[in-house]
Design goal:
The complex is a heterodimer of chains A (113) and B (119). Chain A is an all-beta fold. Helices cover 0% and strands 51% of the residues of chain A. In chain A, strands 2, 6, 7, 8, 11, 12 and 13 form a 7-stranded mixed beta sheet that branches. In chain A, strands 1-3-10-9 form a 4-stranded antiparallel beta sheet, with no helix packed on it. Chain B is mostly beta strands. Helix content of chain B is 0%, strand content 50%. Chain B is built from no helices and 11 strands. The radius of gyration of chain B is 13 Å and the shape is globular. Classes of the chains: A mainly beta (113), B mainly beta (119). At the A-B interface, strand 6, strand 7, strand 11 and strand 12 of A face strand 5 and strand 10 of B.
């Protein structure tokens, strides 16, 4: 199974500042035939289901604000929130869909400093 | 508007069984693979099972293989998860989710239904 490890487990960021979350996979998620990385990011607010933010490591889902961006390739990925808003307080998860079983990171809790 | 509505969660004794349902609307159900993901209280997300558009191909996490069965009725726009031999560690909120067309990541999720396994 591919193990997904996020860092940090939690972070506190001031409103308007940048938040950066890292996700490392135990094996490469890059399909060389398509040059795409099978990595998605989700945001889960308290009491709500997860919401898809990013897929193919860097493609923003329709309707997701452009302050969210994804980057990385192979085994190392990053989710950045360029200017943290109050509504971004949540837990963020990465997920690999390179191979079954599809696996999630343990989550990163983002709070306001 | 895409909607996914889970039901069937309950308190069940260890060793018991339960069937979860997920009623889908707002999209052509039969043209999308579907999945179940669970979340134990205060914990992270764990993928459980998935099923292809036709129902002909199914996938399971090792933790539930042999105990859980995923199925779908495309005429009723409904996804199911039949669970037997339930254990305390199966206690979780169970979400159904729709696979986005491209690959196995999930663009719409239901609100979840709580399964509690306890004596």
């Amino acid at each position: 199974d591919i193990v997904m490890t996020q860092s940090p487990d939690s972070l506190a960021v001031s409103l308007g500042e940048r938040a950066t979350i890292n996700c490392k996979s135990s094996q490469s998620l890059l399909y060389r035939s398509t040059n795409k990385n099978s990595l998605a990011w989700y945001r889960q607010k308290p009491g709500q289901p997860p919401k898809l933010l990013i897929y193919w490591a860097s493609t923003r889902e329709s309707g997701v604000p452009d302050r969210f961006s994804g980057s990385g390739s192979g085994t190392d990925f990053t989710l950045s929130i360029s200017s943290l808003q109050a509504e971004d307080v949540a837990v963020y998860y990465c997920q690999q869909y390179y191979s079954t079983p599809w696996t999630f990171g343990q989550g990163t809790k983002v709070e306001i400093k | 508007e895409v909607q996914l509505l889970e039901s069937g969660g309950d308190l069940v004794q260890p060793g018991g069984s339960l069937r979860l349902s997920c009623a889908a609307s707002g999209f052509t159900f039969s043209t999308y693979a579907m999945t179940w993901v669970r979340q134990a209280p205060g914990k992270g997300l764990e993928w459980v099972s998935a099923i292809s558009r036709s129902g002909g191909t199914t996938y399971y996490a090792d933790s539930v293989r042999g105990r859980f069965t995923i199925s779908r009725d495309n005429s009723k726009n409904t996804l199911y998860l039949h669970m037997i031999s339930l254990r305390a560690e199966d206690t979780a909120v169970y979400f159904c989710a729709k696979k986005k067309a491209d690959d196995y990541f999930f663009d719409y999720w239901g609100q979840g239904t709580l399964v509690t396994v306890s004596s």
